[in-house]
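User: Before I run my own analysis I want an independent prediction to cross-check against. Here's the chain; please return only the structure tokens and, at the end, one sentence I can use as a sanity check.
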Amino acid sequence: MGLVELLEWRLYGNELQQWLLAILVFTVVQVGARVLLRFVAGRLQALGRTTGAQTSDLIGGLLRETKGPAIAVFALWAASTTLVLPAPLPDRIRTLAVVAFLIQAAFWATSVVNFALNRYKESQIEEDPGTATAVGALRFVARLMLWSLFALLILDNLGVQITALIAGMGVGGIAVALAVQNILGDLFASLSIVFDRPFVIGDFIIVDELMGTVEYVGLKTTRVMSLSGEQLVFSNSDLLNSRVRNFGRMEERRIVFHFGVTYDTGYERLKEIPSIVSGIIDELERARFDRCHFQEFGDSSLVFEVVYYMQVPDFAVYMDTQEAINLELYRVFEERGIEFAFPTRTLHLNWGVPEGEGPRLAPAPKKADHA
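Assistant: Structure tokens:
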């Protein structure tokens, strides 16, 4: 048998030369695609490292994410176009290629989502370490949605009627959502906390009567270290529904305090007190004086109100400053003979008041003598 006759030998309706051509196409497409993808991906990622171009990194990562089985299926489909195959087979190979493409597209979409979320986490992680938690939650939700969508597309291409399936999933999804609504509420509340940022890790917050420093923001709970040392655990949804006072965003702390002096303080010395207080506060490095006023006549003192601002939010620094003000105020008042008031009560007694000028005490009745 000659070479020409051998090449014309038929197998399953195709000559041997057609089978050889199909094998060649399959090999060239598979090997060529792998080599080309690896080469282009390497060049793009090297360019991205050199220039810092994020697009090059993204495209290079997508090319590297192209799976070998998907390339093999594409090569098989390309090879099948050179053959004359029985009626059902070309359609099945085409369907297989579409399914492989959808699966590969799902991997590509997942890579894009991961790339975007990783970039966001890198840009925000120093400012808010809790971003890592939100990025993890978003990555899970995005993957679930992407793969659910592509799964439905794959089933549709395989001939499955997905209309009833989608309706059933909708009813089932509602039932599941009702069953886990508290968990889902906390999950979305955690995302709201991270992206809206009412507070971040390290902030000192007060929730109702509880207070402490935020140390962890999770998918369901936020954990706060209280001043007394115990850990406070808040549900994320409950935390967002509460009135949260965030001292971590405080740039200046407004301080109001009062003191009283005795009523026998002279007029001239009363007028000096605001300037005395102003001079004391102005000497302090991190305090800014606002005002000092003789506020009111108290029950046992003349009350002054003082307002100043701390230019740093730290509570310990504020207490050190207030202590310094109190000590210096005490020293200056002692030098100038100004006395601080304290609760007192004065009782005035009048003895020997002449008749007609005041009330008299009635004499006590005498006891009767019995013989």
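Sanity check: The beta strands are 10-11, 14-15, 204-207, 210-217, 221-226, 231-235, 244-246, 253-261, 287-297, 302-310.
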